[in-house]
Amino acid sequence: MSNSFVTVGSKFPEFNKKSVVSIEKGKEFKDISNRDIEGKWTVMFWWPKDFTFICPTEIAEFNKNYSNFTDRDTVLLGASTDNEYVHHAWRRDHKDLRDLRFPMIADTSKSLADALGILSQDDEKVAYRATYIIDPEGIVRWLCINDLSVGRNVGEVLRVLDALQTDELCPCNWEKGEETLVPAVG
Asked: Active-site positions?
C-alpha cells in the first residue's frame, strides 16, 4: 500500500473499474473509467463498506440530490472497495438504494483507493469517507475526508461545486447567487 496522497491540484489517477449501474437483469454492470468523465465536472464519493449503517444514509442523500449535480453538468460517481456483486446485492436488497441514478464503482483490488491515499491504516484497509470534486481537465479541485464514523454533508459538496464553477473568488459561507469578491487593484 502506498503512502501517497492525491490532493488539490493533483491529476486524478487513471482508473477502469466494474460498476453497478442497474438492478435490471442483463443491465447490471458496466466498466467506468476516466474516459467517462473526460471534459466534465465530476464528484466521486467513497464509502467504507456495503451493508453498514452510515453508508446508505449518504448514498441515498447523494441520490436525492442527483438532479442537483446533473443541473450543474456534473457526473456523480460512488465507490467502495467492495466488489460489484456485493454492490448489486446491497442495491437490490436495500429500499433506499434500489433506484440509484449513479454508478457504484467496485474498487475490489483497492488500487484506486490506494493511489488516492484513502485506505484506513488498520488491518481491514477500507476506504475512508472521501469526496472529490474533479474539474473537466481531470484535476482535483476539492476534497474532503471524514473518519469512518462521521457522515458527510451533501449540501456542502454542492456549495463548493457551485463556488468552483464560478471560477471567481468566493468568500466564507458563500452560496450560489451571492456576490463574489473582486480583488482591489492598486
From this structure: 55
Its sign, for the CA torsion 118, 6, 83, 39, is positive
CA 30-51-110 angle, to 5 degrees, is 55
Q: Which amino acid is at 7?
A: T
Q: What is the CA radius of gyration of the chain?
A: 17
Residue 173 Cα distances to 71, 156, 161, 178, angstroms? 21, 10, 13, 10
- Residues 108-134, mean pLDDT to the nearest whole number: 93
Q: Tens digit of pLDDT for each residue in 15-42?
A: 999 999 999 999 999 999 999 999 999 9
